[in-house]
């Protein structure tokens, strides 16, 4: 894999990378993420960040130890946390003289040709102007109804769909695990890392379960769904541990870390 094969990339960061198990915001990680993405952008790459964390961050602001079950309470937390999340990103990126712009999306945007076209125009214009789009689902209004789907439910799939729309060379997913394992490593000490996946088989699907981290939502199952979208588009996805965002630079250089999901050539 050569450096040019990551010319345009989408990076997805999960709540478990941004908030520690005790619920505290990991400011140094966010700072290193900003430094890494700024340096890529300033070296000619097109970079899009898809970030979770609005609800996770709001839990700390409100001194709550777990997500409330009521949807309106989750919407209110998303509204509170998204503003704070963006203020942390704005400050972190500003330190590296990097402009960012907030983009909040719902499932409808991908369903409606006009809205989809508008989204692509906005993203392309930001990239052309060296602005890093910082995308999250618009959780304040993306609530599924009986007869209409507004919500992605997880940002892994959203990130893969964005990557597809902008013809990205690949998606890098940052999480709290080093790789995809043969089973959930938090539950099975004998789980082994899988470094290369060519297709999402039933066996791979069976290895992945939901989240056992305190604040993540989708677990590995939604990351596999994202990888499947990337593979269907003859693109690639790499899953790495988000604790050291500088690893993104290694991935872009073609170093084999984490789990690479790519078709066999
Ligand atoms: N086969 C597997 N390999 C690695 N992690 C797994 C696997 N199955 C389930 N998981 C769980 O998925 C979690 C990561 O997903 P999640 O908590 O949603 O993180 P994020 O916030 O990064 O999206 C891991 O912490 C782990 O508990
Ligand atoms: N849009 C939500 C993200 C929820 C989500 O998918 O979280 P994660 O499993 O950590 O990627 C938020 O910002 O809280």
From TrEMBL:
Pathway participation: Amino-acid biosynthesis; L-proline biosynthesis; L-glutamate 5-semialdehyde from L-glutamate: step 1/2
UniProt entry keywords in alphabetical sequence: Amino-acid biosynthesis, ATP-binding, Cytoplasm, Kinase, Nucleotide-binding, Proline biosynthesis, Transferase
Keyword Nucleotide-binding: yes
Gene Ontology cellular component list: cytosol
Signal sequence bounds: none
Highest taxon above the source species: Bacteria
GO molecular function: ATP binding; glutamate 5-kinase activity
PROSITE patterns in the cross-refs: GLUTAMATE_5_KINASE (PS00902)
Localization (cell): Cytoplasm
Name the UniProt record assigns to this protein: Glutamate 5-kinase
Organism: Leuconostoc fallax
């Amino acid at each position: 894999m050569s450096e040019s094969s990551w010319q345009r990339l989408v990076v997805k960061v999960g709540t478990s990378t941004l908030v520690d198990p005790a619920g505290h915001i990991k400011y140094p990680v966010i700072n290193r993420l900003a430094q890494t993405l700024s340096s890529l952008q300033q070296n000619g790459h097109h970079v899009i960040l898809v970030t979770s964390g609005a609800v996770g961050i709001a839990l700390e602001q409100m001194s709550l130890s777990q997500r409330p079950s009521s949807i309106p309470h989750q919407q209110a937390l998303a509204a509170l946390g998204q503003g704070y999340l963006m203020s942390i990103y704005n400050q972190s990126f500003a330190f590296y003289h990097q402009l960012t712009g907030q983009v909040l999306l719902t499932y409808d945007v991908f369903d409606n040709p006009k809205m989809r076209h508008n989204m692509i125009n906005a993203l392309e214009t930001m990239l052309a102007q060296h602005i890093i789009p910082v995308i999250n689902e618009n959780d304040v209004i993306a609530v599924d109804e009986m007869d209409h789907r507004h919500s992605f439910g997880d940002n892994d799939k959203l990130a893969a769909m964005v990557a597809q729309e902008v013809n990205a060379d690949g998606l890098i997913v940052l999480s709290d695990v080093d790789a995809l394992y043969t089973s959930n490593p938090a539950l099975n000490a004998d789980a082994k890392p899988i470094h290369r996946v060519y297709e999402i088989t039933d066996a791979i699907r069976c290895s992945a379960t939901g989240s056992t981290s305190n604040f993540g939502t989708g677990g590995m199952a939604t990351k596999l769904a994202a990888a499947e979208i990337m593979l269907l588009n003859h693109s690639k996805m790499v899953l790495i541990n988000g604790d050291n965002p500088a690893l993104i630079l290694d991935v872009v250089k073609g170093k084999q870390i984490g789990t690479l999901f790519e078709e066999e050539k």
